[in-house]
Specification:
By secondary structure, the chain is an alpha/beta fold. Helices cover 34% and strands 14% of the residues. It has a three-stranded parallel sheet. Helix 2 links the parallel strand 1 and strand 2.
Length: 106
């Protein structure tokens, strides 16, 4: 679910109430390492004490997460996801291939 699709009255810490998912063990932030780019999720990440993992290819970074997986030499974060899938021998399904292609090609 996309955070900007939430009705304005739903706070990020109520995601499990709104969507019937959760509780969460990890918040995965993808393709940014900047607090100001994650909007309302920044407060959720800071205030709940949830473990935060970051997967990114940008050189700049704030101290967002407990676990940072970053490679600024690749062209896109989608490449890091593809490499992770290959390393873990995870099958690439058509539903995954289209957004990964868009992530790498744009």
């Amino acid at each position: 679910h996309r955070i900007h699709d939430l009705p304005v009255e739903v706070e990020p810490y109520r995601l499990n109430d709104h969507f019937g998912v959760g509780p969460f063990d990890v918040l995965l932030i993808v393709d940014t390492s900047s607090w100001n780019q994650i909007g309302r999720m920044a407060a959720y990440a800071r205030d709940t004490g949830i473990r935060v993992a970051v997967l990114d290819h940008h050189q700049t970074e704030d101290n967002l997460g407990h676990d940072v997986f970053k490679d600024a030499t690749v062209e896109a974060t989608g490449r890091l996801i593809m490499d992770g899938l290959a390393a873990t021998r995870t099958p690439l399904y058509p539903e995954m291939a289209t957004p990964l292609f868009a992530a790498i090609a744009t």
